[in-house]
Amino acid sequence: MVYTSPTDISQLQRSLPENRVSFPVDWDGYLTIRTILGENRSVHLTYYNGILEIMTPLEAHENSSGLIGQFIEILTEELNLNIKSMESTTLDRPGLKAGAEPDQGYYIANEPLVRGKTVDLNVDPPPDLVVEVDITHTDINKNLLYAQLRVPEFWRYNGKILKIYNFQNGEYQEVQSSPTFPGVPKEKLYEFLHNCAQQGETQAKRDLRVWIRQKQS
To answer: In what order do the strands lie in the sheet with 171-175?
Structure first.
């Protein structure tokens, strides 16, 4: 029998990018748990197909999510695209019994439709672009979930590889470049993340802006 001390468990938890727990619950149970936890919390809730996942993002997760968010925001600024950032705002569709709190969510093409208002998915379109960082295993099929929510573009990052999905004919098709940013290869994100780690975030952001401006000139 291998004995694991509380110190070992604490060190393991700190080294993980996320802590996750999932369990079966009905829609009303999900809503009750969300109400009990409140809005000012660090955990993200995802509900799909009768399964609730509670995920606590730790440093590696938060760093990846934050940098990908900065990458997208720099692209929209330099390409002069209006944006409404949703971050981890809850995306609920009671009629579908599905709910999610993605790491990042953005209205870009549909930004004028939701500008200055609180989004209601019962009447408003879903975000144009959703980002999920899933470095550890998740029991939720995120592709099916966001396809059911009809999110046009879905980015999934596992800590090493970015996969970009485009919603076509009722399902996601993996594509090699973003439909929102067609002139930006996803390798540019890898370069940006690498530069943030090696040169610091300020210099990496400067370099990204220079690259975009040169590409446009």
So the answer is: 84-85, 104-107, 129-133, 153-157, 162-168, 171-175
- pLDDT per position in the chain (217 positions), as tens? 434 444 443 444 456 788 999 999 999 999 999 999 987 788 999 999 999 999 998 999 999 999 999 999 999 999 999 999 987 678 888 888 999 999 999 999 999 999 999 898 889 999 999 999 999 999 999 999 999 999 999 999 999 999 999 999 999 999 999 999 999 999 999 999 999 999 999 999 999 999 999 998 8
Q: Which helix or strand (DSSP H or E) is residue 10 part of?
A: helix 6-15
Residue 45 and residue 101 in contact, taking contact as beta carbons nearer than 8 Å: yes
Do the bridges between strand 91-93 and strand 171-175 make them parallel or antiparallel, or are there none, so unpaired? unpaired
In angstroms, the CA 134 to CA 153 distance is: 16
Strands lying side by side in the sheet with 18-24: 18-24, 51-57, 44-48, 98-100, 91-93
Q: Tell me if 194 sits within 8 A of 162, measured CB to CB.
A: no
Contacts of 28 (CB under 8 A, 6+ apart): none
For residue 89, give both structure tokens.
């705002």
Query: Coil, strand or helix: which one is 166?
Result: strand
